[in-house]
Amino acid sequence: MYIAVVALTMLILPLMSIAVEHGVHPDIALVTLMGRWFVFWGVGVRLALAGLRQFFQPSFTAREIFHTTSDEALPLVRELGVANFAAGIIALLSLWNAGFVPPSAIYAAIFYGAAGIVHITGRDRSRNENIAMASDLFIAAVLATYVAWMFWN
Question: Residue 29 in 3-state DSSP?
Fold first, then answer.
């Protein structure tokens, strides 16, 4: 289930949404569409879902991603869940307020980039941690490209 959610929200659904909207509105720059749809799916849907899971099932993130066996980490994972959920909601709202796209992209490029780097430094990564690392670094690069384009155009 984890792999499917990551693949759908971080790659498949954003690319499908870009293709559909580009077909309907070919005059909109592809980079603009990239920002809109990767923020909506990769930040909005992904972080809102992750936040809910981290809040209601903190043991998954604690054990599968952070490799902790103690319940002492669960309150921190819940707080991370609230932060992820809040960021996800702002990114979801970007579909109705385009002004939310750049700040969401900046936040997520930093967040996902830092998370990906932390995963790189980990040893004996699990399959889920490798998936998290690859998807974090991928979306950080996509969003950093969008942000750079926004500032230099």
Answer: coil
